[in-house]
Amino acid sequence: MAYAAFRSIGAYAPSKVLSNDDLAKMVDTSDEWITKRTGIKERRIAANDEFTSDMGVKAARLAIERSGLDKSQIDMIICATISPDYFCMPSTATIISTKLGLGNITAFDISAACTGFVYTLSIAKAFIESGMKKNVLLIGAEKLSSITDYSDRGTCILFGDGAGAAVISTTDNKEEAIIDIHTGSDGEFADLLMSPNGGSGSAHDALEQEATSCYMQMKGNETFKVAVKTLTKDVIEILKENNIQASDVKHFVPHQANLRIIKAVGDALKLDDKQVVLTVEKYGNTSGASIPMAINDIYESGRLQDGELMLLDAFGGGLTWGSALVPFSPVKK
Ligand code: COA
Q1: If DSSP codes are grouped into helix, strand and coil, which group holds residue 188?
Q2: Would you say 287 and 294 are in contact if contact means Cβ atoms under 8 Å apart?
Q3: Most CB contacts within 10 A, which of 168, 237, 267, 287?
Q4: Number of folded domains in the chain?
Q5: CATH of the domain at 263
Q6: Which one of the listed residues 79, 114, 135, 251 is annotated catalytic?
Q7: Torsions phi, psi of 164, nearest 5?
Q8: How far from each other are the two terminal CA atoms of the chain, in whole angstroms?
Q9: What is the position in ligand 1's atom list of the atom closest to the CA of 23?
Q10: Would you call 255 a catalytic residue per the annotation?
């Protein structure tokens, strides 16, 4: 039986910092309000000529190097993004694949908003367990600044840019394997968080092309409540189904949307603060990139050790949600 092992992680954050004080010069807000309501102090913003694929490439190079594989061994690449280099086509995954020189491998994007990385993980697991692929490169990359309305104080304070990547490989050792992944969705809540313009769903005369933007719009307060409920229910279920106690989880890695959402879920699980991974303060919400960026944070700071169990938990536009029980299983040297 082939199992899927989470071998390595990498991430990249652009150098430009956008602080709460910077935002207070652009919209009617303050560092105090943003910090109290979200826990965010600053976020990163990509340069004008720095695309989602460029950030994905930088994260991917690290993940491939740390996997111990030669890049020629990667046989599929999936990119989770809602801010692709180009809307519709080509996919950002194909651009990243070519920039990395991975050859003519399977490459595609998926759209599951902030749950994107957990969705890519479930696809990689299925491909590997079926024997169709052996080494899958996953990327969560976002240039959310390109779809953020910097005149809307309800959204622009939340989002930032960045990328994370991971290599998932086949193994016959069950101890190393990803234990379980949950994914779900409910389009009834689609209007809570959406980019209403720019697609075939926006009512405009196709023959009189209007300039449209893909800016995100959000019903923040309602999103907050649904997020807490959904995230909590999902992690409780995945732990119960796999007979694992919350105390057995070494690192709870939630989607980094809002410190208050993360704390509410952590409290419901009775997690110790030491178990909860937080990067929201410095990166804000980077959607599909947020979970791999957070995993990379504990990896680079030496907190993530071989064999330790991670519980991933995400929620995003769609609505979509997902959770995963993932031991960190680098190749033994
Ligand atoms: N600065 C100052 N005041 C602001 C503000 C800002 N950036 N944004 C909103 N406000 C004001 C509102 O206008 C409102 O004023 P009013 O009472 O005079 O009408 C007041 O603050 C409360 O607004 P509300 O929307 O109820 O605030 P909130 O406590 O829900 O916080 C969010 C707003 C966006 C921070 C919060 O709802 C949130 O984080 N939601 C989840 C978002 C999320 O995670 N999305 C991604 C999911 S993947």
Answers
A1: helix
A2: no
A3: 287
A4: 1
A5: 3.40.47.10
A6: 114
A7: -140, 155
A8: 23
A9: 7
A10: yes
Q: How far is the CA of 190 from the centre of ligand 1 (A)?
A: 19
CA of 24 from ligand 1 middle (Å) equals: 15
- Residue 107 pLDDT: 98
Confidence (pLDDT) at 197: 84
Q: Which 3 state secondary structure label does DSSP give 134?
A: coil
Q: Which residue in 135, 258, 285, 296 is the catalytic one? A: 285
Cα 63 from Cα 55, distance rounded (Å): 13
Per-residue DSSP letter, 88: S
Residues with Cβ within 8 Å of residue 206, at least 6 apart in sequence: none
Question: Which residues is 109 bridged to in the sheet?
Answer: 79
| Tokens representing residue 261 in the block | 């959402």
Does the annotation mark 88 as catalytic?
no
Three-state secondary structure string covering 157-188: CCECEEEEEEEEEEECCHHHECCEEEEEECHH
Cβ atoms of 321 and 115 within 8 Å: the answer is yes
Reference 75, options 67, 83, 84, 86; nearest CA is 67
Closest CA to 149 of 71, 218, 243, 75: 218
Q: Is 285 a catalytic residue?
A: yes
Tokens of 303: 């907190």
CA distances in angstroms from 223 to 72, 218, 234, 283, 319, listed in the order given: 42, 8, 16, 20, 9
Per-residue pLDDT of the chain (333 residues; tens, 9 = 90+): 899 999 999 999 999 999 999 999 999 999 999 999 999 999 999 999 999 999 999 999 999 999 999 999 999 999 999 999 998 899 999 999 999 999 999 999 999 999 999 999 999 999 999 999 999 999 999 999 999 999 999 999 999 999 999 999 999 999 999 999 999 999 999 999 999 887 878 766 666 655 567 899 999 999 999 999 999 999 999 999 999 999 999 999 999 999 999 999 999 999 999 999 999 999 999 999 999 999 999 999 999 999 999 999 999 999 999 999 999 999 987
Q: Are 106 and 137 in contact (CB under 8 A)?
A: no
Instruction: Give the Å distance between the CA of 6 and the centre of ligand 1.
Output: 36
